[in-house]
Design goal:
This protein has five helices and eight strands, in the order αββααβββββαβα. By secondary structure, the protein is of the alpha+beta class. The chain has a single domain, classed as Orthogonal Bundle (Transferase(Phosphotransferase), domain 1). The chain has a two-stranded antiparallel ribbon.
Amino acid sequence: MTKEKIKEMMKEARLMRNYDHPNVVKIYGVVVEREPLMIVMEFITGGALDEYLRKNGNRVKLEEKLSNMCAGAAWGIEYLHYMNCIHRDIAARNCLYTNRKHVKISDFGLSRKGDAYQLTTAKKLPIRWLSPETLASGLYTKVNSSIKYDGTISKW
């Protein structure tokens, strides 16, 4: 693992350790004494929400989607915004679904602390669901994050 990857991973872990919410994946620690380095998080039995929806989408009732999936993701995002975090990659693939049908936000690799984050260099980004404002200006805000959430749930 390169020094840059280690640095990114540790940044993600440091950010995650600040969060304690039912709709945000919990971090328990980081294994750094041997390869591969790992972030140890709570185990979510259901896996990624996008995979769950691919397998079960036509059998999932609208009420379940609204009350469990959409609301759970929204509560997690609201908490992250309250904690001054911009996730920057809200998508069903980064939401985990428990066997109790709760959604938990995960994958904080692109997340940043603050009210806004300005891209300073060209980087690989998941642009498929970026808000038009972010695409045009490179500025991520809590509002843009909410717009990305809207784009994500429209796919559910």
